[in-house]
Write a structure and sequence with these properties.
The structure is a single chain. The chain is α/β, with parallel strands linked by helices. Helices cover about 30% and strands about 20% of the residues. Strands 4-3-2-1-5-6-7 form a seven-stranded mixed beta sheet, with no helix packed on it. Helix 4 packs across helix 5. The model has no long low-confidence stretch (mean pLDDT about 95). It has seven helices and seven strands; from the N terminus they run E-H-H-H-E-H-E-H-E-E-E-E-H-H. The protein is globular and about 40 Å long.
Length: about 160
């Protein structure tokens, strides 16, 4: 799976309240949640994202409370993947559940806001087309690629076991 998009850069310790404020948790609609993604820390963010764009962040992305709404909001606003130095364990699990790809990259700090990235999930290669740099990270395992391609864990299970 190959992804390509413009970078929206964030720092360390972006928590689930930063990603989607608690006042919006009454909805489960991905597009509605996406229209409010990151607005508490960057109000213009939902309006700037284009389908396929990529979030790049520092360490401990997705920390805070255990809410699946956070990766749903990210995916709902059009983000195709998240690249960060590290992820909170609960975000990791919730992102898999909804089919949002994520990659850990220790050099994430070298990627700048507005850079154009191309991500090869199968090979774990992140190309920064703006800076003409290439990074190697852990490939996204084939079974996780299948989950992402299937739209999330529940859709994957339904497709695989309801033959």
């Amino acid at each position: 799976m190959l992804l390509k998009g413009t970078v929206h850069k964030f720092g360390d310790d972006i928590n689930t309240d930063d990603i989607i404020a608690a006042k919006y948790l009454v909805s489960t609609d991905a597009l509605e949640l996406g229209s409010h993604c990151m607005e508490s820390i960057r109000p213009e963010f939902p309006g700037k994202v284009r389908q396929g764009d990529i979030i790049v962040a520092g360490r401990n992305f997705g920390c805070g409370s255990s809410r699946e709404h956070a990766p749903v909001a990210i995916k709902g606003c059009g983000i195709s993947a998240v690249v960060a130095k590290s992820f909170a364990a609960i975000f990791f699990r919730n992102a898999i559940n909804i089919g949002l790809p994520f990659l850990e990259l220790q050099d994430a700090g070298k990627i700048m806001d507005g850079d154009l990235l191309e991500i090869d999930l199968a090979r774990g290669i992140i190309k920064n087309l703006s800076q003409d740099k290439r990074y190697q990270t852990q490939p996204f395992p084939p079974f996780l690629q299948e989950i992402v391609a299937g739209g999330g864990l529940m859709q994957y299970i339904k497709k695989r076991y309801n033959r």
